Here is the input.
Amino acid sequence: MKKKSLALFFALLGLALFIPHSLFGQEENEKPVVEIEFSGLKKTRESYMQRKVKDFYGKTMSESFMHDLETALQGEELFSSIEFQNEEVENGIKVRVQVKERISFIVLPMFSVSSSSLSGGLFAFDTNAFGIKDTFALGGLVGKKSAFALAAFSKPAKDLTHPGYSVAASFSMGESEISNIDNETVFSYESKGFSASLSLLEQFNKYWSASIGLGAGYADFKEEKEGLESGLKGQLSASLSFNTNDWNGCFMSGEHIIASSALALNTEKNTNQSAHLTFSVEEPLLKKLRFLFSASAKIQHKGDVTDLFDRSSIHSFTLPDNFKTDKGAATWAGFEYALFNPSLATISAYALYEAVIVEDWDDSKVFCHGPVFGSKLYLKKIAIPAMSLCLAYNIPKSAFQFVFSVGMTF
Here is the structure.
């Protein structure tokens, strides 16, 4: 009896090992995706979404396929929720995608307060104009001694043979102050001016994109000083970008490289050049925890005072608000954790450590470093930045930097 039981056991084991995979449903998984159907679209055009998923047609259904499809759809930043249902049809698999659209048009108050500045204003945004993800923004900000207005429109590139474009115009007026690394005011001026730009946008594939732009502006300084020249200025700029995305159900992470350069010419026929390189990584470690890294460097050659750049250009947190330079590099690394991830919003906290080297106003090289702590609020139903808070400490200078903003990111 025992021998018969063993014989039966090995017979069943052999049958399980050699049975065709199709009996376990593997045949269905090997079928190609022949249709992707969207429901729940209200503002977004069906034709736009079909263009975005055209590369998924004909691919074999698998777990990685579904992950890549969800990442692509989340990367559009158009939907607050995405649900999938697969159906076997005659010649393959049909994927049904049920979506809920984010609010893309909004009139949003903006507010920002930092260690040495205060500003607020109102902007109207549409991040999905015409249902094809065209973007426009119109509004302005008012600070303690300055005002700024902006109108911009952007149409993204469809593919290599259908480039996009962006146009923008701005007006600014008021007083500006520049500080050294010790946060002491070393230069100030009062001006008003306007600028306009036109850029051509190209998408080579899902990873690589580029732009080339022309800009013109006019600045009028109330008081002529060394390093300030009233008049017209033209600019030619170009950039090349590499981006990857990965959605893990909580964060959109990836790798990003941006290289850009600009050449400007003013009415005195003086030229200045700039070059900028940024590399950043967001790497998921757990569903709610990810590693963050950034490295950025910029150099400005033969520019005037208004061409100097601030800490935001190199993604620094520890430098003073009003500090500006023509040479600098910053890097930081740390972690971000999603404290709460309900259906309406995600609230995260992050901790970083930054190191930065810049050229100060007296041409000396200065090295600074220190910890950075902050929190961000990501709204899931509105495709606009919500709220952010940041506190940084510059250890060599024993100085804190603080920023709190609503409707803006930094």
